[in-house]
Design brief:
By secondary structure, this protein is of the alpha+beta class. It has a single domain (about 1-140), classed as Aminopeptidase, CATH 3.40.630.30. Helices cover about 25% and strands about 30% of the residues. It is built from three helices and six strands. It has a six-stranded mixed sheet with strand order 1-2-3-4-6-5, sandwiched between helices.
Length: about 140
């Protein structure tokens, strides 16, 4: 998918490499995941997904839904599309019985940090492959 390739290029530009998190597209299949794509005039311009976590590990809890691959193309930023995708992911996760949304973002993504904090997300201890990564920030929000 072009949106994911574009997002990986953003990571390369900001961090020097792509996202190292292992992600299998099958993890986003309902009922243990969800992936959304937003369109404007028939063109894909925004995306994001969540995948279920049902085992406690680091700061993850059973019932968590981890947000992955949130992205809005540059030309469409500042129009609230990321907020719409995020709200949609939360709604679908809640309906699927998920208890909390969790995510990782990086220090070099201030717009993402602002979106999550303004949407009610609070810092938690880093988890998974980002557990000891100095530029990673993890967040959570109860659903």
């Amino acid at each position: 998918m072009k949106l994911i390739a574009d997002l990986q290029q953003v990571y390369v530009t900001r961090y020097g490499d792509g996202d190292v998190t292992p992600v299998d597209p099958a993890e986003f299949a309902p009922p243990l995941g969800h992936f959304a794509v937003g369109y404007v005039d028939g063109e894909p311009v925004a995306c994001g997904g969540w995948r279920a976590h049902d085992e406690a590990q680091d700061s993850l809890r059973p019932g968590d839904a981890e947000i992955k691959r949130m992205y809005v193309v540059d030309a469409m930023r500042g129009r609230g599309l990321a907020r719409v995708v995020l709200a949609s992911l939360e709604t679908v996760a809640r309906a699927a019985g998920r208890k909390r949304m969790v995510l990782e973002t990086g220090l070099r993504q201030p717009e993402a940090i602002k979106l999550y904090e303004s949407s009610g997300y609070a810092r938690i201890d880093n988890f998974g492959v980002y557990r000891h990564h100095p530029e990673s920030l993890c967040f959570a929000k109860e659903l």
